[in-house]
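Collaborator request, handled under Task 6.
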Amino acid sequence: MASIIQTVDVEVPVSTAYNQWTQFESFPHFLSYVQSITQIDDTTNRWNVKIGGVEREFTAHITEQHPDERVAWKSVDEDHAGVVTFHRLSDTETRVTVQLDWKPEGFVETVGAVFGVDDHAVKKDLQKFKEFIESRGAETGAWRGDVG
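Structure tokens returned to the collaborator:
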């Protein structure tokens, strides 16, 4: 399993950052490897990603979600899991931390994980999230339900 931890500080209140992260279908705007996400129900999403030129689809379930604190998920096949946590730094600044665990498949993904390409991609995507949410100043929607 490859493991990645990256953090970014965003200039929005914690509720704004959290609310945006619950809008899974907006992820292609700031996550470069995500082609699309379809929200099936409150806790189930269908992901279509392209990593190293290889397209994959998987279903993920939200395993834990607490407003303004965290969103955790695991894929049905258990080859992918993650958690995003939100930390209030001030009334207008939030630290967003992403932890991903995934199983690289094939030569290209394995080599990429060994050389930290996946880690760099997550760092870059968090920067894109920062630019996305700060340029908007507000979230595109919110789901404030509590799971687990």
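The cover message to the collaborator said: "The two ends are 25 Å apart (CA to CA). DSSP finds three helices and seven strands in the chain. Please let us know whether this matches your experimental observations."
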